[in-house]
Amino acid sequence: MPAVDMGALRTRAPLAAVAGFASFLYGWILGIKKAVHTDKAPAALGPYSHAIKVDNFVHVSGCLGLIPEVLKNMGEVLKASEASYSSVVETTILLADWNDFKKVNEIYAKYFPSPAPARSIFQIAALPLDAKIETGCIAAL
Hints:
alpha+beta, CATH 3.30.1330.40, 6-stranded mixed beta sheet, 6 strands, 27% strand, transmembrane helix, RutC-like_sf, membrane, transmembrane
């Protein structure tokens, strides 16, 4: 393994971090983001996109539905975003009934290959259209 010049690394690493953040900030300020839409998933219920692509990530809006249906809808949005279940790095799940937790885990495991993405899951009082579940995600491109 070649030797690493730690002095050069220490002086260049902060510059690389600043350059990366500056690139992100530049894209954010200029609005360099791309909306994603697909006819293969239910239409948005409000003024939002199915997903937004920015930098090397896609941020998928919450998909409503029944438990297996919601992951299929999310898959269609991922596909339209040129991503897949295997590129998902984080999910957020909202449940109308905590008793569905075990069922969600069983179905979730069938869609997401190992290593499974990071996940947050919450029970909430209600979801639009009396849905049982809503899930959104972030995927790497």
